[in-house]
Each structure stands twice: as structure tokens, then as C-alpha cells.
Design a protein that fits this description.
The chain is mainly beta. The protein has 6 helices and 46 strands.
Length: 718
């Protein structure tokens, strides 16, 4: 019987090949260095780390095959067991495994992994300059897999005819096939109810099982993402050999020649953002909870229906959450503008294969990216990547992100990074915009108000254009979150401020544009895009006032003076589901030398007040707002909570020019990961709390000099 052992605890780590006393005990996922929030130098992670772990095999391992499965390590990993070289893997974003059966003993064993985080030009994404950082270490999880010599290698469930007569094919591949092995293949729904069972003798090491007609199948939808499980069980003479469970969904996703994207036969405009996998302090070493939080933010807070995993395969935890909440995914192979030599290309092909074989069961994934992001044409190479993707997964289409309309179209979808104003439309369909705005308009949370508003409106204009163009399947903005980068890019602190949120996943004004496109039945959104000051714009005043909302109408009051009722600005944003409101006064409200009053905005739905926002004219800090997305952590040594801190006025609005020094004190058995003290930029910031391996109550005390302190309580349990 298959035994999967988490292999993340009690690793010894040193940033070089060191003597015993120089090692520290760490838990995976692990970054080879904790980093500052600003001005991260990529040279700081470019070294060879040593990871070492002692382990004993269970008695049940006798006669079995034993594998070490890595979810990902950055960038080149060399593995030894008991001093013997097992192998080397090049590449940081996709999984890899080593068969260690012949090298382990029944007693004590030692695995040593040398992880070289040097930006090696022979390994994708390197070779040229890269606009993101590849923080080093064993930054994803590892498992010890113990299986019978005859075991399941892969299961690929392929739904059939989901819109007419749902059925299912499953491609199953085995290792070391035996003639007398039988397979049971069982389909269950999300509640565990058995839908269908098939049993047969296994004819070969690769075979296909078909369920030609299934009744009562629920489709995977964005608002009801129904998931099913296919369980493959192998038996020999009544003895259980292996069992593998694969989660998937029944859905039909297709980009069609009419230019539209269809999900389950219904046209759907794609509306989304790109995502980098990195965070402040911890680089890319984010555990399951933070990975899932990013998916939740994209779907539930920002209202996206698609995310692009720029520019590499991302965590299985992130993709699993996309499956669970109904967030579509465009996943692409690793790289950035550069195409290397033949050996480099082979590594890219290996990366593509590993990504597809790992992820092709995810119903959220609708498109494979088979070009190196923004690279020149290379027809021979890209014919190979397309052919490989189509052979490994004939159920999904391919795209390849380019920056020029004249690019040779070898894929199924013309995917284009479209940064100029307006909307570039190629002569071919289907067409998907995969980046826009981004570096054309980098924006900080503490920038001049006019810039922050214009940043949001850049996103609004592009999406209005794409919603109004029948030949464009959708648009994915650059990008969701700010990120660290190389000195050749970004601002003077080596951060790309391209996100609609900052690195902590806290909103800029542009985030509220995305949020305002949600249906009012999901959330009523009302956000006046202003600090409501007199001297924050060129020339002073607040004319026009931009409001992001999904309400039908708004009313505006200044103090007790009624300014009028306003409709969405369909003249400038004619195709958005919910255009912004642009409030222009015939007599600009610019009361120099007169009292300045609070702003009140009320949103109406169907003639009834549905939301209200007030902004305090005095801009006086009233409180620290401290938020956590969870009040419970697992005592696994890896789980993390983000604790967000904001300076707010008496109505709850963030004050972006209130620069405060915040101090954190942690009580309990956990680790604080933060700049401490922390300077809030844009009126907000965050710290992280990481669990240890003991149950505990943790209190995070947050204080600043002039506002009441706030405590956050977290329960940590096994």
C-alpha cells in the first residue's frame, strides 16, 4: 500500500557546506535567507545552501520502492543519500523526484541536498535579464513516497461530452506492470457518494478506462465549482498494492474562432490579473495558507475570474484553491524574453512537460502557455512546445505570450501583452490580452492622488475596450501584487510597483476598480477614489471626483450641502459592467479660505440606499486597524498568518500620508516575521506570524506612539 510521508520537518540548514554546530533546524517551505522589505539585492540569495535530514524508514518499506518527491527547489538541486550521489535537477518551478530505493538502509539514513540559487544563465528563466527574483532554497514541500514496485505513476481524467451526455476517460500509467494485477476505478462526488465503479484486469503498463455515460453530473462552474474524485486501486491476489486519488471537474472550456471564450457553452469575458508568487521577507517560501489566500484575494476581493501564473508554474496549493473557488488559470512555462541554446531549450521542454503532467487534472486551468514570455519568434522551438503540450493534454488549448502583432501564430490562442493605449487587435482569432498597464504606470500607495486615480483609470479604460470588442476573449492586467525585482527594473528600492495591491496584498485605488466590477449580489462596492484634501491635486480641489461602485446611482454631500445624484460614466467607459462615476461640479468645489467639510457618498440600488462612505475632512488618525485573515494556525512549523496594519480616520478610511512607526510584540510559541519596528508606507503594512510545532495561544501586540494599541489573538493547534 502506498505510504506518503511529509518530509518537511527537522531539516538542518546552513548557507554553505558547514560543520554540525553551524546548522540550524528549519521546516519546509524554507527560504535560504530572510530578506528586508525594500531594496532586496538578488546577490544576497545567490549561494549554495546545504540542507540535511536524518530519517529512518518504517518497517513497511521493506520490499518497496522509495522516492523523494520535491514540489520545487530554487534553482539547481543536487541530492545525496548516505553520501552517494542520487542526481541533479535543474530548474526551480516544477516538481522532480528521485528513486532512492537502492541507496537507503533499514537503519538510519541521511539525505543531503545542495541547493544552488545562483542565477545560472544555462537554466530557465535565466540567460538574459529577468524582471523578477528567484529566491533560493527548498521553498516548496517534499514528501517521502513508499510504494509497491507495481504502482500508479499517473492518472489523467478526461471528461467527455460534458454539455450533452457526460462521460469520462482516464489514462492510467503504471510502473512495473504484472499480468495478474487488477484495477478498480471509482468515481465519487464532492460528498463522497459513489457515481460509478469499473473493475478490470490491467492489460499493460498504460491503459485507458472509460465511463461512457454518467448521470447526475454537476458541471464545474465559477459560482459552483463542483469537484469529483477518481480513485484508482490496484490489487494482486486480493492484496492491496496501491491507491491514488485525483480530484478534477467536469467542464468544457474553449476559445473559439468567433473570438470569444466559452465556459460550458456560455460566453464569458475573461477579467483578471497576473500573479507573482513572492512575498515580503520570505521570498517565495509561502505555505499552503498564504498560497490559498492569494487565490481568495484574486477571486473574492478583486473580483477576477482568471489569473495568469506569470511566468512559471506555481504552487499546487494555489492551483488547488483555484479549483475550489472557481478561479480560471492560464499557466505557462518558465522564462522571460530570453531563448537559450539547445540544452536550455531542452530544460524548457522538460519544465513544460513536468508542469502539464502535474497540473492537467485541474479544472481551473484552461490554457497552457508554451512560449517564453515576450520572446522573439523561434518557429522550430515553438512547434516543439506546442506539439508536446497537445500530446500530453489534448483537452486544452495553447497560447504563447508575445509583444508584437506580427508574431508567427503557432498556438490556438493569440495571447498578447498589450501596453500602448487603446487595444491592439491581430488579424487572427481568438485573441487574449495577457498584460497591460504595469510598467507603463507604476504606482505606489503613497503617490500623489492624481497618479493613484489615473493608475486605476488606466485599468478601467483597457477593460472597457476589451469588454466592448467582440474579437477579444478577455484581458489580464499587469499585475495583482507589487514584487521585488533586479536593479535593471523597478524603482530605486528594487520593487516593481505595478500591482493593484502592494506586496502585502493590501489595496491601492486600482484594486477598488476591480472590486467594483463584481455583481452587487456578490458584494456592494462603494469607494470614493480620493483622500478628500485641498492640496493633493495640481491646482487644488477635488474636481472631478471619481467613485468606483457597482451601484445604479450615487448621491454626494459635502458637509450638509447636497451636490446631486449621479449616474455611471458610460460616456467614457461604455462597455464596463459597472463604469466608474465621474462627478464634475459646474462650480468646482475649491473653498480656499473657507471651512472644509466631510465628504459623504451614498450608493443606490433600485432606488434604495445600499451603501454609504464618509471621509473625514480633517484627516486625523483615529485608530490602528489590525486585520488577520485567519485566527487559527496549524502547529506544523510552517503555517503562517498575515497581520495587516492600517492607520484609519474615524470613518475607517486608510490615511495614505500618515507615516507611522509600528512596533510588534509577540507572546506565545510562534515566530514573528517582520520589519520590527515597521514604518507604514501609504498608511498600511503587515507582518507575518509563523507557527511552531506546539499548540499555543499567540497574542500579537501592535502599538504606535499616538494611537491605541491593538491585540490580535491566534490559536495554534495540531
Amino acid at each position: 500500500m502506498r505510504l506518503i510521508c511529509p518530509f518537511n520537518h527537522d531539516w538542518q540548514f546552513a548557507p554553505a557546506d558547514a560543520c554540525d554546530e553551524q546548522f540550524s533546524i528549519v521546516t519546509l517551505p524554507h527560504t535560504n535567507k530572510l530578506f528586508t522589505r525594500l531594496s532586496v539585492d538578488n546577490a544576497d540569495y545567490q549561494f549554495v545552501s546545504t540542507y540535511r535530514k536524518r530519517f529512518t524508514l518504517p518497517e513497511s518499506a521493506t520490499g518497496k520502492r522509495i522516492f523523494l518527491d520535491f514540489d520545487g527547489a530554487m534553482l539547481v538541486s543536487t541530492v545525496y543519500i548516505n553520501g552517494a550521489l542520487i542526481g541533479t535537477h535543474k530548474g526551480g518551478f516544477t516538481p522532480f523526484s528521485f528513486d532512492i530505493t537502492a541507496f537507503v538502509t533499514a537503519g538510519n539514513n541521511v539525505v543531503t541536498v545542495y541547493v544552488d540559487a545562483t542565477e545560472d544563465k544555462s537554466v530557465p528563466p535565466y540567460g538574459g535579464q529577468v524582471d523578477y527574483l528567484t529566491f533560493g532554497g527548498l521553498y516548496r514541500e517534499i514528501t517521502l513516497r513508499i510504494v509497491d514496485p507495481c504502482h500508479v505513476v499517473s492518472v489523467f481524467p478526461r471528461p467527455l461530452n460534458v454539455l450533452t451526455a457526460p462521460g469520462l476517460e482516464a489514462d492510467i500509467r503504471l510502473a512495473q506492470w504484472h499480468r495478474d494485477v487488477r484495477a478498480e476505478v471509482m468515481l465519487t462526488d464532492g460528498a463522497g457518494q459513489v457515481i460509478a465503479v469499473h473493475e478490470q484486469a490491467v492489460p499493460a503498463d498504460a491503459f485507458t478506462v472509460t465511463f461512457p455515460a454518467l448521470t447526475g453530473i454537476a458541471l464545474w462552474l465559477l459560482d459552483q465549482p463542483e469537484l469529483y474524485t477518481l480513485t484508482v486501486t490496484l490489487k494482486q491476489g486480493g492484496e492491496l498494492l496501491d491507491q491514488v486519488m485525483t480530484r478534477f471537474g467536469f467542464r468544457h472550456a474553449e476559445f473559439c474562432d468567433d473570438g470569444k471564450f466559452y465556459l460550458n457553452g456560455e460566453p464569458l469575458k475573461l477579467f483578471g490579473l497576473n500573479r507573482h508568487q513572492t512575498y515580503p521577507y520570505i521570498g517565495a517560501a509561502a505555505p499552503q495558507r498564504l498560497q490559498a489566500l492569494d487565490a481568495d484575494i484574486l477571486k473574492h476581493e478583486l473580483g477576477c475570474n482568471i489569473v495568469r501564473t506569470s511566468h512559471y508554474a506555481q504552487s499546487p496549493h494555489f492551483l488547488n484553491r483555484c479549483d475550489e473557488i472557481g478561479l480560471l488559470v492560464f499557466e505557462e512555462l518558465a522564462g522571460w524574453q530570453h531563448i537559450g541554446d539547445a540544452m536550455w531549450k531542452q530544460l524548457a521542454l522538460d519544465d513544460l512537460q513536468a508542469m502539464i503532467e502535474r497540473d492537467r487534472h485541474h479544472p481551473s486551468i484552461i490554457l497552457w502557455g508554451v512560449r517564453i514570455n515576450e520572446s522573439p519568434d523561434d518557429d522550430d522551438f515553438y512547434q516543439h512546445t506546442n506539439a508536446l503540450a497537445r500530446a500530453l493534454d489534448p483537452t486544452r488549448q495553447t497560447g504563447g505570450v508575445r509583444t508584437f502583432l506580427q508574431s508567427h501564430f503557432l498556438e490556438d490562442v493569440f495571447t498578447l501583452n498589450d501596453f500602448p493605449p487603446g487595444l491592439q487587435t491581430p488579424r487572427v482569432r481568438p485573441h487574449l490580452v495577457t498584460e497591460f498597464v504595469g510598467h507603463m504606470f507604476p504606482t505606489k500607495t503613497w503617490d500623489h492622488e492624481e497618479r493613484r486615480i489615473e493608475h486605476a483609470l488606466h485599468h478601467a479604460r483597457k477593460h472597457s475596450l476589451q469588454f466592448g470588442h467582440a474579437d477579444v476573449a478577455g484581458a489580464i492586467g499587469w499585475c495583482a501584487f507589487d514584487y521585488h525585482t533586479h536593479k535593471e527594473f523597478g524603482s530605486g528600492d528594487r520593487i516593481c510597483y505595478h500591482g493593484v495591491m502592494d506586496m502585502y496584498r493590501l489595496p491601492k485605488m486600482a484594486a477598488y476598480f476591480y472590486r467594483s466590477q463584481k455583481a452587487p449580489t456578490d458584494e456592494i462596492v462603494l469607494y470614493a477614489a480620493t483622500n478628500w484634501t485641498m492640496g493633493d491635486r495640481n491646482g487644488g480641489g477635488n474636481n472631478p471626483l471619481v467613485v468606483f461602485s457597482n451601484c445604479d446611482e450615487i448621491e454626494v454631500w459635502i458637509g450638509e450641502e447636497y451636490q446631486g445624484r449621479f449616474r455611471p460614466d458610460v460616456d467614457h467607459y461604455p462597455h464596463l459592467p459597472h463604469p466608474p462615476f465621474t462627478v464634475r461640479w459646474s462650480e468646482p468645489y475649491n473653498p480656499w479660505g473657507t471651512p472644509f467639510h466631510d465628504l459623504t457618498v451614498r450608493g443606490y440600488l433600485n432606488g434604495t440606499v445600499a451603501a454609504e462612505q464618509k471621509i473625514h475632512a480633517a484627516h486625523v488618525p483615529a485608530a490602528l486597524r489590525v486585520l488577520t485573515h485567519t485566527d487559527h494556525l496549524r502547529a506544523d512549523g510552517a503555517d503562517m498568518a498575515r497581520i495587516a496594519v492600517q492607520v484609519i480616520d474615524k470613518y475607517g478610511n486608510v490615511l495614505p500620508y500618515q507615516t507611522r512607526v509600528v512596533r510588534f510584540t509577540l507572546e506565545g510559541d510562534a515566530d514573528l516575521i517582520a520589519a520590527n519596528p515597521l514604518v507604514l508606507l501609504g498608511g498600511q503594512g503587515a507582518c507575518f506570524v509563523r507557527s511552531r510545532r506546539t499548540s499555543s495561544q499567540v497574542v500579537v501586540h501592535v502599538e504606535t506612539d499616538d494611537l491605541a494599541p491593538v491585540d490580535v489573538v491566534l490559536q495554534i493547534s495540531e
